[in-house]
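Consider the record:
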Amino acid sequence: LEKISNNSNLTKEEEIEKTIFEGRIENICQTASDNKVPLFIDAEESWIQDAIDDIAIKMMQKFNKNEAWIYNTLQLYRNDRVDHLEMLFKLAAEEKFFVGLKLVRGAYHEQEIERAKEKGYNCPVHTIKENTDIDYNKALTLCIENIDFVSVCAGTHNEESSALLVELLNKHNISKDDKRVYFSQLLGMSDHISYNAAKEGFNVVKYVPYGPIKDVLPYLIRRAEENTSIAGQMGRELTNIIEEKKRRRNA
């Protein structure tokens, strides 16, 4: 994936592997489309992301002709993602396909900064958290403004971004239960956002990591580290957990 992202020449064996890889992805997307099940393609480190974006866009072009079944993930700590989003919307408008997107802030911040320093290239991620927040909210706004051909899943544990999405839906007269818009949080994190949004009638999904502990635990640790940057919110969440434990003991 790194060589493809860098537009490096592939060996004959690598070309074969690429063809097999793309064929497998297409088979999975075909199955999802046939069964009308949304399929989310996750985001990774910047040095392999271009290859993932390319295959995700190809799958959207092929399978999202009538509505969005294939979703790509945008990490808004990347300082080029709003531009990428605008490019994608322009392409979709020209080629008449629907865009499926999951918006997240991103989980490889330290690795991205360290690798950029080590390799001597411009850092691809925002170094100030506020700029990530600005781009996330900007991307969310663009998605809702283009809802006629966009479906969006807001993967965020941030209260302000969640409140913004509610505001945008109201502003554009979009129904709370419109199937093109979902809130998403990790199971066990920001449950107060999930439960309150669901209670009000919004579409909410909880993201459930599944697999062996040795594989799942590093993912959960990254999520916990990512969420420590939400000033004040984690303290409130801890208070909520303590109160719930008390309630259950006394029930």
The beta strands are 39-41, 70-75, 99-104, 150-155, 181-186, 204-207. The chain has one domain: 2-250. The first helix runs from residue 2 to 5.
